[in-house]
Amino acid sequence: MGRFNLVIAVLSLSLSVCFFPDSASAQLRQKYYANICPNVEDIVRNVVNQKFKQTFVTVPATLRMFFHDCFVQGCDASVLVASTRGNTAEKDHPDNLSLAGDGFDTVIKAKAAVDANPRCRNKVSCADILAMATRDVVSLAGGPSYAVELGRLDGLRSTAASVNGNLPKPSFNLNQLNAMFASKGLSQTDMIALSAAHTLGFSHCDKFANRIYNFNRQNPVDPTLNRQYATQLQGMCPRNVDPRIAIDMDPKTPRAFDNAYFQNLQQGKGLFTSDQVLWTDRRSRPTVDTWARNPEAFKSAFIQAMTKLGRVGVKTGRNGNIRFDCGRFNG
User: Fold this and answer.
1) pLDDT tens digits, one per residue of 38-90
2) Which residues are annotated as a binding site for Ca(2+)?
3) Which residues are annotated as a binding site?
């Protein structure tokens, strides 16, 4: 009996170390900069508004960049760092090459605006600016606005190798999705809510071509894909087309952050396997059905999931700093 208790104790300790390293997320709080840079949220929001007026791509680009940043080494803005002669950084990993430049530009311009205020100069991390900008683009697209927890430091390393195995693939099934999100401390409900970010933005033809041309020997087209939708996709992405051609992720309301994503799944119009499986798998279908008819319940779950995502791998103390330039480490 004593040995059993020891095993349980060791397991509990291991889980604590895994999910709460140095209790880093405990330093996050709303209004973190109230006495440091009191107008920081207004400064960032103004920049985001200007970028949004220039191009809608700012919205999905910033949201996707936040997700890619947090999932690789934690929410530490390491995805913003440029490669150098001696190091290939995260942003140049093949899985990140499709991140739109407008996301990077939004954070860089917001950082410049924050640092233009003498009281704020070099006191606000790029990681926090990215978190605020992500909240703002979601709101501008019609999604919920929410209070952002702040207090992150910027990471001290960024390597392409660290991306390997840390981002979900379009081909993932529910077990694979749940396992990857659980490794970040996120539940199946969180995963489904965050997947709805695919209500915005675009994908390239090569990411789903297998579903419309060579799914398997018996079914060239994925049978879970709506037939009419599959024909439309074939028209937009003919065989041997340039794989970089972009297709809206949401065929219904591609410029609105809404619950149409879940309604699309009910109709077989999830672009990726990893989207459609949320409805075809009986374990996740009830959540999809609930949020398809109840947008407020979805928005509430999305806020909770984004808050939890923003706590992943937060850097504190000597594990981070505040970068002077979001694109490179301090000298």
Assistant:
1) 999 999 999 999 999 999 999 999 999 999 999 999 999 999 999 999 899 99
2) 69, 72, 74, 76, 78, 90, 199, 250, 253, 258
3) 69, 72, 74, 76, 78, 90, 168, 198-199, 250, 253, 258
C-alpha 112 chain-centroid distance: 23
Global pTM reads: 0.91
From 45, 68, 93, 323, active-site residue = 68
CA angle 183, 102, 251 (to 5 degrees): 75
Return d(Cα 140, Cα 63) in angstroms, integer.
12
To the query of whether residue 68 is one of the catalytic residues in this protein, the response is: yes
d(CA 219, CA 234): 15
Complete domains list, the chain, with CATH: 22-167+310-321 (1.10.520.10), 174-308 (1.10.420.10)
Q: Residue 254's Cα: distance from chain center in Å?
A: 17
Tell me the C-alpha to C-alpha distance, in Å, between residue 48 and each of 102, 104, 127, 133, 272. 11, 12, 15, 6, 29
Rounded to 5 degrees, φ, ψ at 315 are -95, 140
Q: Retrieve residue 4's tokens.
A: 């059993």
Q: Mark the binding-site residues for substrate, compressed into ranges.
A: 168
Q: How many helices (H) and strands (E) does the chain have?
A: 13, 4
**Span 126-160, pLDDT tens digits:** 999 999 999 999 999 999 999 999 999 999 999 99
Give strand pairing partners of 246: 204
Taken in order 331, 129, 124, 49, the sign of the CA dihedral is positive
